[in-house]
Amino acid sequence: MDNVWIAFGLTLFAGLSTGIGSAIAFSAKRTNYRFLSLATGFSAGVMIYVSFTEILGKATEQLGASYGEALGNWITAAAFFGGIVFIAAIDTLIPHAENPHDVRTEAETAALHARPPAGAEAEPRAHDRKLLRMGLFTALAIGIHNFPEGLATFLAAWEDPSVGAAIALAIALHNIPEGISVSVPIYYATGDRKRAFLWSFLSGVAEPVGAAVGYLVLRAFITPQLMGILFGGVAGIMVFISLDELLPTSRAYGKGHDSLYGLLAGMIVMALSLLLMQ
Fold first, then answer.
1. Do residues 248 and 23 lie in contact, with contact meaning Cβ atoms separated by under 8 Å?
2. Are 161 and 99 spatial neighbours (Cβ–Cβ below 8 Å)?
3. pTM of the model
4. CB < 8 Å & 24+ apart, contacts of 196-199
């Protein structure tokens, strides 16, 4: 039971880091794109490494013990690709224009930072309404994406808090640019910092909500077999997020080999963490 509260706390930390993105959007005159590139690359490195070296290993171990090595390996592979199909299906439900993981160019974001808040004008213009719509739909899209991310973080931390902490840090880092993508258009459409921060905050709340719903639904049915299947699915979800969202975003924000450096740093830090915890 102690691990449940630790897991929920880590998921809450990861989700609410969208607020850090809001703070950056409000306080910085210009977004530090190199930091975003390194941070998202780092997150991808952590998620990919821990998925293949730890989480899939736990799935294989639990399913192998229950069904035998051969069948257990087949079920693990099916769960892994099932997780990929699940998160890909969620991704297809989000309109392309409002998908927060379709990378915004630096020129687009710089233009948003450069113009004065629309709240200073007497009448909001059509462009301001478009910005507001983009921000609100981005918040909704991020909330939809964050729900399974929260469940994945929670399950990993529930089984092993040290691994869950690493995943929570990785997701927290990748939530920073998501917070910016919500806050900036809403703030520049309305001139209202509180409103922009609130929507950014709510988009992050979806992660602890996903954790809570997952725990309430699954706790009565938890068996070693189910946990093994869930771990396989969690690994698939995190690999998909890394390859489809984080690495393209990192490459778009960075210059040269920034995304690669971030990716390698994430893998190295994760490897050292796991070795030191043995």
1. no
2. no
3. 0.76
4. 196/22, 196/25, 196/26, 196/135, 197/19, 197/22, 197/26, 199/135, 199/136, 199/139
pLDDT of the chain along its 278 residues, tens only? 568 888 888 898 888 888 887 777 676 656 667 777 888 888 889 889 989 988 898 899 999 999 999 999 999 999 999 999 998 888 787 655 455 554 555 555 554 455 444 444 434 445 566 667 767 777 777 777 777 878 888 888 887 888 788 888 888 887 887 787 777 777 777 777 788 888 888 888 888 888 888 888 878 788 888 889 988 998 998 899 889 888 887 887 777 788 899 999 999 988 888 787 76
